[in-house]
Design brief:
GO molecular function, one term: carbohydrate binding
Pfam families: Lectin_C
Domain C-type lectin: 10-150
Number of helices: 2
Number of strands: 6
Keywords: Lectin, Membrane, Signal, Transmembrane, Transmembrane helix
CATH architecture: Roll
Distance between the termini: 14 Å
Helix content: 10-25%
Order of helices and strands: EEHHEEEE
Number of domains: 1
Shape: globular
Membrane topology: Single-pass type I membrane protein
CATH topology: Mannose-Binding Protein A, Chain A
CATH superfamily: Mannose-Binding Protein A, subunit A
Strand order of the largest sheet: 4-3-5-6
Radius of gyration: 15 Å
Structural class: alpha+beta
């Protein structure tokens, strides 16, 4: 499910947000990736601050629409393969976009990525959470375990 919205200004001209209030319908990273590909798209890659802002605006509109959207992070198409260097200082450089995009744009939350066993990336959406060191847990990125359900 999810509503498709199209714009002319970005490389990715159409976007589709899928949000599931029902926790049992949320999926891991690979399932989300496959669902997007079966739908003819790809998990989101973000090219710029402007595109990040566009997505934030879309999420804010979804929240305002009274659909009852609450806490629940969103998978984006950034991930890291292989665990060999997961704990080293080069870890942040190992993340790549699932659709092959080479955008260097990143919007990590403070102290992220934490690496280790966390290799797939979410865009935070936790409006009810108390803010952390990097401010509210809204829209910045966090690496998470790929089998988590979002």
């Amino acid at each position: 499910s999810g509503q498709k919205v199209c714009y002319g200004a970005f490389k990715h001209s159409c976007y589709k947000l899928a949000y599931f209030q029902d926790l049992s319908r949320r999926v891991g990273f690979q399932e989300a990736r496959q669902a997007c590909e079966m739908d003819g798209g790809a998990l989101l890659s973000l090219d710029s601050e402007a595109e990040q802002q566009l997505i934030e605006n879309m999420l804010q509109n979804l929240t305002k629409s009274g659909s009852g959207i609450s806490d629940g992070d969103f998978w984006i198409g950034l991930w890291r393969s292989g665990d060999g260097l997961a704990t080293s200082s080069v870890c942040p450089d190992l993340y790549q976009w699932a659709d092959g995009s080479i955008s260097p744009f990143r919007n990590w939350y403070t102290d992220e990525p934490s690496c280790g066993s966390e290799a797939c990336v979410v865009m935070y959406h936790q409006p009810t959470a108390n803010p952390g060191l990097g401010g509210p847990y809204l829209y910045q990125w966090n690496d998470d375990r790929c089998n988590m359900k979002h």
